[in-house]
């Protein structure tokens, strides 16, 4: 097991190195750099930027050096936790991400919990009651949830809540609390706003996961060992939970591992629509503005979460399934 | 055996249908047989004739899309003084009463030993499941019983097998484990659904001889489902031959092999390759193939393939089960005086 973990760690690091390289390259592929974006913005505002000032900026951010050197400067800082500076905000990348990470993780873990707590029981119910009324209803609702785009659902919810209850649910706080210090009232206000993104992000995820759970479980319920367990005289609930569900959960664990990046990607479109202070919109803007250290760092974080998620899922599977041996 | 004539299981006119997207599949359309206490009944027939569904009906665990539409399965349970008749088909499948019978009174072993143990639990865990469910024993007693039942099916190092996961055992070992689980609660009836089909020939022989030894030792009744007439010859006292959801003939083992009456049984026996055959003789086959259960022939279901086909009778009227001898039933117009004027002319 230890040898397995060590080997996997080596793979993880080499994967991440490769991703950092390719990622950086791709971010640098579009012609121009942040300096051009900066200049264009200045021009729009009617100010002229002196050639010397641009040169100074270039030097300051190392943009005058060739791409491999830029890459090296950026990567070198990782070990110290230095991910470079954002051009646009003129602040440390790590600071920028850090201040948005709290809400992002809160919303993402909230919706992940929501998805699992709702989808798994419904999936089990529909599989054990195949083609009965409950299954059909869940299937129709699930299909609807799967087909409605989440930004659409977000917009509709915002309008409906505004019209019916008369308060806005965009953002995470009501206007009066945004800059207020933390207090009980502020927390209550946060919870009032938080459920909307959780439900919106959760709905499509729930529908998908529910279908996967149902499909897997139906396959397993047809296995002979389930019949054999029933033939021993076990209670139906024991047969389903102990023998069927545990065997059907494997693909879901892999899926959970793969969904780890969403914890920090902050469901981009929903966040933009709802105006949430998560990392999603930040990442999106960084890409548009060619704010390359910010964008690159995001990319690295996402890659890291994905690799880590897969690693954890593999270990978890090994604990659950005795057939998986790490030799 | 003293109680030779005492009935343990009666299957009467059993009809089981499956509702699928492409219509109703009539899997069983009249299954009748009786099993006496201490006897081994072979249920034979081609693939898809309803052998396994019959087993599921006896266990009252027909898959959710299937329904027993007619007929009954009656189990005669022994209690203190005499026997009590329990109509299994009248019990709700998930009821406590049914679960008490399953695994305790009637146990079952399955076709695929490779997939009939849950891969995530040890052999011991699954064995104890059955023991703790049906027997009033404490932890150490249960463990002793479990090890003993593994020992009884001649598994070497039962302690090691007890702690093993299914994937660490071979197919033959797994089938022994299944037999151990089935017998751990001393059932009076064992249903063996093609228990050796998936095993190689030597393992098959070992499992068969084990089952015979265990039957000698416990005098339990066995329903042995198979399509292998060689296995039937080795194992069974009685044989019920099935064709397309119906029992077409039931009689004792000797009559089945030496003077079968139903043309289908006769054809089945002719199609067994024999060692003393002339090398150049082609193996006899039954003409055609088993019709799809959703398009069943009219009249006698076997008539399109039957060498004794009586025009005007067989394709029009369904034959009924007639008693041709003591303990010998045949479902064929040849032996039904009311249906045809021509008596059977078979040797």
Short synopsis of the structure:
Chain A is mainly alpha-helical. Chain A contains 15 helices and no strands. In chain A, α5 packs antiparallel against α6.
CATH superfamily of the domain at 100-279 in chain A: MetI-like
Just give the CATH class of the domain at 100-279 in chain A: Mainly Alpha
Enter the CATH topology name of the domain at 100-279 in chain A: MetI-like fold
Helix content of chain A: over 70%
C-alpha geometry of chain B: globular
The strand order across the widest sheet of chain B is 6-7-8-3-9-10-12-11
Total beta strands of chain B: 12
* Helix content estimate of chain B: 25-40%
State the distance separating the first and last CA atoms of chain B. Answer: 32 Å
Computed Rg of chain A = 24 Å
CATH second-level architecture of the domain at 100-279 in chain A: Orthogonal Bundle
Quaternary structure: heterodimer
Describe the 3D structure.
- The complex is a heterodimer of chains A (327) and B (347).
- With 327 residues, chain A is mainly alpha-helical.
- Chain A has a domain at 100-279: MetI-like fold, CATH 1.10.3720.10.
- In chain A, 75% of the residues lie in helices and 0% in strands.
- Chain A contains 15 helices and no strands.
- In chain A, helix 5 packs antiparallel against helix 6 (133-147) and helix 9 (224-231) packs antiparallel against helix 10.
- The longest helix of chain A has 38 residues, at 184-221.
- The radius of gyration of chain A is 24 Å and the shape is globular.
- In chain A, 31% of the residues are buried.
- Chain B is an alpha/beta fold and 347 residues long.
- Among the domains of chain B are: 114-186, no CATH class; 261-335, no CATH class.
- Chain B contains ten helices and twelve strands.
- Chain B has helices at residues 51-58, 96-101, 123-134, 139-152, 158-163, 171-183, 201-218, 229-235, 253-258, 263-270, and strands at residues 7-20, 23-36, 40-44, 66-78, 83-87, 106-109, 189-193, 221-226, 238-243, 246-252, 321-325, 328-331.
- In chain B, the strands form two sheets. Chain B has an eight-stranded mixed sheet, with helices on both faces.
- In chain B, helix 7 (201-218) links the parallel strand 7 and strand 8 (221-226).
- In chain B, helix 4 (139-152) crosses helix 6 and helix 6 runs parallel beside helix 7 (201-218).
- Chain B is globular.
- The A-B interface holds A 130-131, 223-236, 242-243, 246-247, 320-323 and B 59, 61, 64-65, 94, 99-104, 107-108, 110-112, 115-122, 126, 129-130, 133-134, 165, 167, 178, 181.
